[in-house]
């Protein structure tokens, strides 16, 4: 079930796996510079050859990048574009409609979701609106206020990565209120030191499905591991179950948004 | 991928265009997990640009504005171009955007109204104010879909003018919501207190549609600062009225809500 098997299935792609491995090497990720390639090479949800109803196969990736084998930069770019066009192809998460999900992201990530191309708000307006919502003082109306102010706003720019919450009454129990532990357990190595991190819980709107992520969803994200769980940043250990789904709006929040201190 | 700092002018412009339009290899490394917008990498480059590269970059951005006007981009792509200008505070683009706004060239395309709105939004973000007349004239173009933008443009000149137009801008709950979304930024930019906004809102609320008025009231209630009714109708007591009619000395009485029911106008406020 690896790229080598895909090469064995189609002579025209022989040699591409090695090129792909090199193009995806990331020396800065000291644990394993080839982690991104390894994720794509070993994800059990991804097959060798195309199968109807299953995530895109490794052979499809290799055939897609084959015309670019002479230029490693373009090869890498085309592989990432391939990933981007095969999101949410993993198995559906059961009973997503009745599940509460949690998510942590940077403050700025949410701002970019809110300030979309149809919005008359400047980036600074979106920041002020979100700041106003998050800094609302504790009160019985705080959550109502947040949901009212953010109701029609997208809370991310692209698809969301979330984790199912076991006890909706205690929504952030899994990640805790502390920023660093939340980043650790969710494996969010993409969030820089000092970036403000916020957490929230939500339900999916009717008709929106959640899926177990594949290596195509992860793309060039070396902190990801296959298996349907996050991978901790601080030790070699899996964290929480995770899903990907279309972005949601503020009206789908089920508890208040808070900064993780 | 070649480092944009080492590109020729033409290469840089093409790279920027592809990046902002999410086309091909130039945009392949967008970090979706971080919700990276296409304009962010160019923004980083702009912020650290020096000397010749600074000039090259500026030329490329201005050329793209012209290009997008001549052959309009998709709104999502043009949005990224003007977000770059906004976030990078590229004031040198103000003239080009102002010319677009005045000429209304963008409106010629199918999705031109949205492009025009994006240009206006960016002008305001760059600190450009236009004139009251300009924003009044823009109402017919974008006011129905983006009343918040008109409100913001008017408020740049006069808060009183902006609030005076509120009843005709906030024609329904959706329009009111869009304007309310700007209040936090307005408070920050113009150093307004909540009580100032309360006063301004109170002065126009009776002229708003019921839905808009409800939304406005709720906005203040959710901030624990309800818009209390301003009682400007004096009800004299029955005793004082009788005394007045009978020619006795008129004695002013304190308003007693128990003696008189609320007027229709007060009921609207409550």
User: What string gives the helices and strands of chain B in order?
Assistant: HHHHHHHHHHHHHHHH
Q: How many β-strand stretches of chain B?
A: 0
Query: What is Rg of chain A?
Result: 20 Å
Structural class of chain B: mainly alpha
Uncertain segments of chain B are none
Structure description:
The complex is a heterodimer of chains A (261) and B (270). Chain A has helices at 3-9, 16-23, 35-42, 58-65, 72-84, 107-114, 123-134, 142-150, 179-186, 215-218, and strands at 101-106, 160-164, 197-202, 210-211, 229-231, 238-241, 243-245, 258-259. Chain A is an alpha+beta fold. Chain A folds into two domains: 3-84, no CATH class; 96-259, no CATH class. In chain A, the strands form two sheets. Chain A has a six-stranded antiparallel β-sheet. A two-stranded antiparallel ribbon of chain A has the order 5-6. In chain A, helix 2 (16-23) packs across helix 5 (72-84) and helix 4 crosses helix 5 (72-84). The longest helix of chain A is centred in the N-terminal third of the chain and has 13 residues, at 72-84. The model of chain A has no long low-confidence stretch (mean pLDDT 95). Chain B is an all-alpha fold and 270 residues long. Chain B has three domains: 1-128, Serine Threonine Protein Phosphatase 5, Tetratricopeptide repeat (Alpha Horseshoe); 146-228, no CATH class; 231-270, no CATH class. Chain B contains 16 helices and no strands. Chain B has helices spanning 9-20, 40-48, 51-70, 75-87, 94-103, 112-125, 132-143, 147-157, 159-164, 166-169, 173-180, 183-189, 194-204, 210-221, 238-245, 264-269. The termini of chain B are far apart. The relative contact order of chain B is 0.06. Chains A and B meet through helix 5, helix 6, helix 7 and helix 8 of A and helix 4, helix 6, helix 8, helix 11 and helix 12 of B.
